[in-house]
Amino acid sequence: MPHRIAVLALDGLLPFELGIPQRIFGRSLGSEQRNKGRKLYEVVTCSVRPPGPVRTDADFTITVERGPETLATADTVVIPASYELGPVYTEGRLTDELAAAFAHIRPGTRMVSICTGSYVLAAAGYLDGRPATTHWSSADHFQQLFPEVRVDPDVLFIDDGDVLTSAGVAAGIDLCLHIVRRDHGTAVANDIARRTVVPPHRDGGQAQYIQRPVPEAQLAATTSARAWALGRLERPILLRDMAQQESMSVRTFTRRFREEVGVSPVQWLTRQRVERARQLLESTDLSIDQVARDAGFGTPTSLRQHLQAALGVSPTVYRRTFRAGRA
């Protein structure tokens, strides 16, 4: 059976964020021959009340056809943002309706929040002692309301195993793609990203708020340098080489790069190489030595160190994990 995802629709919800799980998980299809074309997830929407209307923050309501008992059937529960959280937002406690709804959730269910949906997880106690994030503009208030949560206001999302939180709005797309990648590998996640016309991979550690997401017209961008680097990841790439692609000094290039991408050029290169290694481990039979060279890490030792730091597993374990599901 497909993995069942229940999306909890609360009054005051943001329609865009409510639609993210359906768009990402609902379009996830198996790519290997054994599972080709098979839906990997079943996405259902439910309310904290019996079936009926739910208000949005727009000029329309939606009709939700499932009640809170649906949460008992979920393998993953997703809570999008809402602008009408009431005591959840002001006092850090669940309403009676929410508490009764959460009582249906089975132990071990994966819990996910998008944007300020994290307030609901925190009020329910799921984030006690854990790292979490939320929209950067709410981070200070969130930390004051829930001092036991380790809030990181800078990142796009945080994966803490069975509880995952994302920053605002489009970061929910990044988190959902990350979950697909974690569950089924890079090839499936990249296919969804292509069809959704979004970047296939923005790492969770990327900054929420980039100083200059769209470069000012009079300032040179770093796009050409990034494209140049992606075409030669298997070779040594020096910072001055990237700066030369944009005819900038290293200092100016580094500053512009961080303003546009949110991380340093070195951090970005490492992430691209980790992503390349993941693709090769999943989709080829190349030796670990060859994967290390083709991804630009040079040696198996360097590949192991970077994969362990990024994903917590060795190249061999990573390959075995995704090959096992396709045997």
Task: Jot down its keywords.
327 residues, alpha/beta, six-stranded mixed sheet, two-stranded antiparallel ribbon, 14 helices, 41% helix, 13% strand, globular
Question: How would you explain this protein's 3D organization?
Answer:
- With 327 residues, the chain is an alpha/beta fold.
- Helix content is 41%, strand content 13%.
- It has 14 helices and ten strands.
- The strands form three sheets. The protein has a six-stranded mixed β-sheet.
- α6 packs antiparallel against α7, α8 packs across α9 and α9 packs across α10.
- The longest helix has 19 residues.
- It is globular.
- The protein starts with a strand and ends with a helix.
- The relative contact order is 0.09.
Quick gist of this model?
This protein has 14 helices and ten strands. With 327 residues, it is α/β, with parallel strands linked by helices. Helix 1 (15-25) links the parallel strand 1 (3-9) and strand 2 (41-47).
